[in-house]
Design a protein that fits this description.
This protein is α/β, with parallel strands linked by helices. It has helices at residues 11-24, 46-56, 60-68, 84-102; strands spanning 2-6, 34-38, 73-75. A 3-stranded parallel beta sheet has the order 1-2-3, covered by helices on one side. Helix 1 (11-24) links the parallel strand 1 and strand 2 (34-38). The protein is globular and about 45 Å long.
């Protein structure tokens, strides 16, 4: 199960994660669930990604949700850039990051 979010978590997204954790996912599905954070320009900086996960854990819903999925969070940057070579490189890196996780 891939859950995709972009930017700061909104109340609606937090409500959705709460509902997903209570209703849709049973204990067997947690091991197969990953949160993908899109549009994250610093996706290659592991310290920045770790900080983002810590920031998400400030929300009680996410503090409970993330450990259930084993803190599996992938940060990618799929934003459109005007410099096509830069955009292509980021897109390739993001794709590889997701594929490596899924293997």
């Amino acid at each position: 199960v891939l859950l995709v979010t972009r930017g700061r978590l909104t109340k609606e997204q937090l409500d959705a994660f709460d509902n997903i954790s209570r209703v849709l996912l049973d204990e067997h599905m947690w091991a197969h669930t990953t949160l993908i954070r899109t549009g994250y320009s610093r996706f290659t900086d592991s310290d920045s990604c770790a900080e983002d996960i810590e920031d998400m854990c400030e929300h009680p819903v996410m503090k409970e949700f993330l450990p259930k999925i084993g803190n599996r969070v992938i940060h990618v940057d799929n934003q459109c850039c005007f410099d096509s070579s830069e955009w292509q490189a980021k897109r390739t890196q993001s794709r590889e990051k997701v594929f490596n996780h899924l293997r």
